[in-house]
Amino acid sequence: MKVINNIITVLAISMTSLMSAQMSQDSELYMTLKKKDSTLFDAAFNQCDVDTMESLFTEDFEFYHDKGGVTIGRDNFLAPNRENCAKIDKNKPQQAKRILVSGSLEVYPLYKKGELYGAIQHGIHSFEFLNEKKEYQKGDLAKFTHVWVLEDGHWKIKRELSYDHQLQK
């Protein structure tokens, strides 16, 4: 009987680890959140589309940055973006670029009682900035972690971590 209980315990642990493993890159969840990531950073860096950014964050969004500190609340996070976007000439090249490092994106589903309610998305991205000669130069390389939740059937970021910023060589 003890052997059977041990086997059941091992199987239960194995099944639990399989359910919370990183999603395959061809899974629907992985592809959905990869597209959301692309939409977010396109809105932030290429389009300066604060309304799209707003649609991707929960109202109680929290942003933790290893160099810039913490920002609590979607509106507080977006306020500087709204101000900066109002000043930008969209006919000029973008001042900064965000590039997702190929192969770095990982997605881990979050379940409660077997029902998908969220996901953790982790990756590495690099940034480039226009210098005084209007040429892009390498900026930071950093890690990011997003906690996505399903809110009324829509994927939104509830928490974002941006950390381990290091100047690219």
How many strand segments?
Answer: 7
Distance between the termini: 60 Å
The helix-strand sequence is HHHEEHEEEEE
Q: Mean pLDDT, as a whole number?
A: 88
CATH architecture: Roll
Keywords: Signal
Signal peptide: 1-21
Organism: Flagellimonas eckloniae
Protein name: DUF4440 domain-containing protein
Explain what you see.
- Residues 1-21 form the signal peptide.
- This protein has a single domain (22-167), classed as Nuclear Transport Factor 2, Chain: A, CATH 3.10.450.50.
- The chain contains four helices and seven strands.
- It has helices at residues 2-19, 28-47, 50-55, 74-87; strands at residues 57-65, 69-72, 96-100, 106-112, 115-130, 136-151, 154-167.
- Strands 1, 2, 3, 4, 5, 6 and 7 form a seven-stranded mixed β-sheet that branches.
- The protein starts with a helix and ends with a strand.
- Residues 5-19 have low confidence and may be disordered.
Topology record:
Layout: H1 2-19, H2 28-47, H3 50-55, E1 57-65, E2 69-72, H4 74-87, E3 96-100, E4 106-112, E5 115-130, E6 136-151, E7 154-167
Parallel strand pairs: 1-7
Antiparallel strand pairs: 1-2, 3-5, 4-5, 5-6, 6-7
InterPro entries: DUF4440 (IPR027843), NTF2-like_dom_sf (IPR032710)
Keywords: Signal
Domain DUF4440: 38-157
